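>> received
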Amino acid sequence: MRRGFLTAILVAGLSAPALAQAPGSVPASPSSLSRQERNFIAEALADGMAEQALGKLAQDRAETEPVRRFARRMADDHGLKTDRLAGMALRHGIPIPRDPSLSARSHMSSLRDTPEGAFDRRYMAAEEETHARAIKLYEAQAERGGETGDFARDALPMLHSHFEEARGIMAELARGPAPPQTQAPPGDAPPGTSGSSE
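>> returned
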């Protein structure tokens, strides 16, 4: 997958309603938000767009159904969150990123090149880490007032849920696949075994 295609996925992840302004509407003055609030919107928006793209990539590459389901949830949930953030960005004159961050591009490239059999663990480990970081960002913002504080408080339960789900799936993957459930015919136990299981 080429970088330009990944960028197109990120941009396409924003739905048309979020990007379209109502007729006659005028974006709020950039000065209506503090620099810190504007930075939060820009960072959260870039993170949300990256999560959507990674979720779409993981739906194609995942090897187990729990990881595919999680990836679908990431694309859907972060899509809704990103739409809200894009709406705030438009109202306050904050540029909407057209490219993923350098770290997101690097991460997507690494995941895209992950050998078969290793993708699920790498993706879920990264999701656990990125959601832990997002929770810190949103908790700090949730302590503030205003529109961005309200948004952060609304989003935190979802982020905590994603984090716990990622931890659970990662724990399952760490245990590895269950051994094959094959039974040898009676008396055909391999040499050196009793033929019975405990």
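>> Confidence is low (pLDDT under 50) at residues 1-31, 178-186, 188-198.
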